[in-house]
Description:
Elements: E1 2-6, H1 12-22, H2 33-48, E2 57-64, E3 70-77, E4 88-98, E5 103-113, E6 120-127, H3 136-150, E7 158-162, H4 174-184, H5 188-197, H6 201-206, E8 212-213, H7 219-223, H8 233-242, E9 245-250, E10 257-262, H9 267-271, E11 273-279, E12 287-292, E13 300-308, E14 311-314, H10 316-322, E15 329-333
Parallel strand pairs: 6-7, 11-14
Antiparallel strand pairs: 1-2, 1-13, 2-3, 3-6, 4-5, 4-9, 5-8, 7-10, 9-10, 11-15, 12-13, 12-15, 13-14
Protein name: Arginine N-succinyltransferase
GO biological process, one term: L-arginine catabolic process
Keywords: Acyltransferase, Arginine metabolism, Transferase
Amino acid sequence: xxxxxxxxxxxxxxxxxxxxxxxxxxxxxxxxxxxxxxxxxxxxxxxxxxxxxxxxxxxxxxxxxxxxxxxxxxxxxxxxxxxxxxxxxxxxxxxxxxxxxxxxxxxxxxxxxxxxxxxxxxxxxxxxxxxxxxxxxxxxxxxxxxxxxxxxxxxxxxxxxxxxxxxxxxxxxxxxxxxxxxxxxxxxxxxxxxxxxxxxxxxxxxxxxxxxxxxxxxxxxxxxxxxxxxxxxxxxxxxxxxxxxxxxxxxxxxxxxxxxxxxxxxxxxxxxxxxxxxxxxxxxxxxxxxxxxxxxxxxxxxxxxxxxxxxxxxxxxxxxxxxxxxxxxxxxxxx
Length: 335
C-alpha cells in the first residue's frame, strides 16, 4: 500500500535520489546534501511542533508500506516571505494614450514584487517516474491538503503553488536566457543553487529596478512567460481541480506560473470529515482518501472505507498503515 508519511533525517539518501531524478530547474528540490539535510531536520521539528508555526516546513514522503521504498516527495511550507522576501514578477498592463495622436496602446510588463509574505506554499511535488499515471501523484498532492485540513490554524488563509517554468528540448530555459540572465549574469544552475543555499539577498541586489516591457523581450522568452514545464502539466491539472487559479505572478528565474487558492475553499479541505475509527470488513466499500486527524504523526493513504454514522470503518491493514487504533480520530475526503 502507498502511504504518505512525515519525512525525517533518515530519508536523506532517498530524498537525494529523488532530487537527481527531478531534473534541472526543480528549485525546491536541489541536489545539495546540506540543503536537503537541513530541510529534513526542519521537517522533523515541524511535525513535532518544536518550531514556531510560521517557520514550519512539512516534508512528506510517499512510501510503499510493504517494502519501505520511498517513491515520492511533497511539501507544505506554513508561511513564505517572512524571514526573507519572496520575490516574483507580476504581469501588469500599462496603458498609454495620446490625445494628439488619437492613439492608445496597452503594454504588458514584468514588475518585481514581494506579495506572498505569510502565504502557505504547497510544492516540491515529485513522484518516481515509474508510478506516474496510476494515481500516486494525486494521492501525494492531496495528502498536503489533508494535512492542512487536519489543523487549519497552522496555515495561512491563502495557499500558493509555484510551478516549474518551460525548458526547451536542450534543457535550457528561454525565460532565463532572454530575461533574467541579463541581470544576474550567472549560469542558471548557480543562481538556482543560491536561491536555497543563501539568504537570497543577491536576488534583490541584482534584480531589475524598473518594469520590463514584454514587447522588447525576444519571442522565445516572452512565449515562456507563465508556461508550465512539460513535466508539470499534470501537477497544474491537479492544482486546478483543487481550486487553484493563476495569480498573475511568475517565477523570476524560469517564468513558471504561481497559482493560488483560499485555504478553506480547497476541494479536499471542503469535503473532509472527521470520524471515530472502527476496524472491520470493507470488501465492498468504495476507496476514499484517508488521513490521521492531527499534524503530529500525520499519515495518509487511499483505501476502501465505509461511513457508519459517526464512525468510519476501514480494514485492519489500512489501520496499521495509518498507525491508528480503534476509536482514534480519522479524516476522510472524497476519493
